[in-house]
Every structure is written in structure tokens, then in C-alpha cells.
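Internal tracking record. Fields below are filled automatically when a chain is submitted to the structure queue. Please do not edit lines marked as system-generated. If the sequence contains nonstandard residues, flag them in the REMARKS field before resubmitting.
Queue: standard
Priority: normal
Entity type: single polypeptide chain
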Amino acid sequence: MTCEATVPLFDSAWRVRCSVRHATKAEAAPMVAAHYLRKFPAVTPCRLVMFDGVKAVGTCIFAFPPRETAVRYGGPTWELARLWIDDSVPKNGESWLIGAAVKHVRREHIEVSVLVSYADPSAGHSGGIYMASNWERDGSTDDGRKTPRFDYEVDGKHYSRRAHVPVGSDVVRVPRVSKPRFIYKLKRA
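SYSTEM-GENERATED OUTPUT FOLLOWS
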């Protein structure tokens, strides 16, 4: 007789227990601290937290992307910039959280026409979670670039802009990894 491990699923019992609501920066801070980037994006118009009963178990934070992103997609665009979920939640709970976040934005922020997000291969992310949540693959960050992009490293700390590097520091240029881009078009009636 063989014993097979059963993988817990984010099933109807989980769906009944869980909810998603707006959160303050302070409420989302512990989850952002647990995220691999460990910091908030610059401007966050929408912070959502997923609750299992009264326990916060996940967050989905939207940020304003660069101006060019709205031009690319022809209207107001938000970036899903932070997604984190506690290890106690079954794996497909991320898809549920993304779905709940999309529904929230569609209902509460009708001015937004497109959501965009990126998978970070340097963190082991492929974007499968977005594909599972019905987002469309839309190229990558380096599509159409003629020159490679770099980050800057000083004593193990990374900077995305040269202007942020402390003056007089010995800088190491590190090639930036191209990230797959995913979009979700919010249909309007």
C-alpha cells in the first residue's frame, strides 16, 4: 500500500472563510515586509488584504506605473506591483486573490482600463499565476530596446537608478533581467 501526499486546494471551504478588502499602509506593511522585495512601490492607489476569518494572509497592491504604460494601453493603467500570500494558504489561493482583486478594481475603480504586472525571473517567477488568472502575456520589458539596461550595486545593495547611488560609492553595474509582462483588460459596458 502506498501513501500519497494530498495537496490542499483552495476549495469552497476556503472561499467561504476568505475575504478581500481595502487596507491601510500599516495593515499591509507586515506582508510587504515578507515579500521578496521588502518595500512598497512608490505610489499605491489601491492596497488590498486577503483575510482568512480575521487573520491577514495575503496582499495585492496596485501602483501607478510609468506614464508610458498608459500610453501603450490607451487609457488609465494600474500595475499589480506586490502580490504576497502566506504559506498556510493553498497554492491556488493566489489565483483566487488575484481574481478578487480584479473584481474589486473593476467595481470600485471604474476609471482603470488595464492592469499590468511583471514576472521576475531572477526571483524564480515565470508568470504562471497570471496565466492561471486569465491575464494575457504581452511581451517583455526589453522588447524593442536597442541597449541593455543595468542596475547598480554598492556593497550588496541594489539601486535601479544611478542617481540613487550614494555619491562617491564604488559601483558595480549588473545587467537587468528582462521580465515577462502580463495584462488584464477590464471590460467596460
